[in-house]
Amino acid sequence: MAERSSIFDMIGPVMIGPSSSHTAGVVRIGRMARHILGEEPQEITITFYNSFATTYEGHGSDRAVIAGLLGFQTDDERIRNALDIARERGIIIHFKAMNSAPKLHPNTLKIEVKGVTKSKEVVGVSRGGGLYSIIEVDELHANISGQATTLLVYADDAVGAIAYVAQVISDNPCNIATLIVTRRAKNNIALQIYELDSALSDEILVQLKNTPWVKEVIYIPYEG
């Protein structure tokens, strides 16, 4: 699915901070990681790569990603104090830097986040103008743009699994804009990632969650 853009993407989003790549895009990556976790973070480890590794403190990317993980929007005045707010809430935070990762985009960061009941790992790229991509979830390939309603389905790698989920979505009715399926090995758990043209009903989500071979369903409405 092509990234949607507007005059606001060209002049930059409404935001707190010096740079759309280092602030707005990073906040949005953090927010997406929070959605994927689905609960309040308890411990967060952030690894910044390449140019991010040398600039993240000076440009406020450390505060930006924590702000996103706290659920703040890009124009929230609390971004400046996000680190203090997180620590006041008892959240444990670690930062790492890796200067040389030639296979990765210059503005890449990895988020390892633990909640009360589960943990998630998300790798994101800030592309400028507030745009971003999630390129990995739990070490599985992804391509989440944040430009559409997103559905993640962890399921057994069973024959007909993709067709079944696609049929359930189409019964909503809802059109699938993009679909990526990734797995570590044959007959292992597969991650199905759908970007959708419209929202899904609660009934559809319950149906998917109650499917015996579906392990986890994560639903992320489009935020605009």
Describe what you observe in this structure:
The chain has 224 residues and is an alpha+beta fold. It folds into 2 domains: 12-138, 60s Ribosomal Protein L30, Chain: A; 149-220, 2-Layer Sandwich (Alpha-Beta Plaits), CATH 3.30.70. It has 7 helices and 10 strands. It has helices at residues 7-11, 20-37, 51-55, 61-69, 82-88, 161-170, 202-209, and strands at 43-49, 92-98, 108-114, 119-128, 131-137, 140-144, 149-156, 176-183, 189-196, 214-220. A 6-stranded mixed sheet has the order 2-1-3-4-5-6. It has a 4-stranded antiparallel sheet with strand order 8-9-7-10, with helices on both faces. Helix 2 (20-37) packs parallel to helix 4 (61-69). The longest helix is centred in the N-terminal third of the chain and has 18 residues, at 20-37. The chain is globular and about 50 Å long. The two termini are 16 Å apart. Residues 1-18 have low confidence and may be disordered.
Helices, strands, pairings?
Elements: H1 7-11, H2 20-37, E1 43-49, H3 51-55, H4 61-69, H5 82-88, E2 92-98, E3 108-114, E4 119-128, E5 131-137, E6 140-144, E7 149-156, H6 161-170, E8 176-183, E9 189-196, H7 202-209, E10 214-220
Parallel strand pairs: 1-2
Antiparallel strand pairs: 1-3, 3-4, 4-5, 5-6, 7-9, 7-10, 8-9
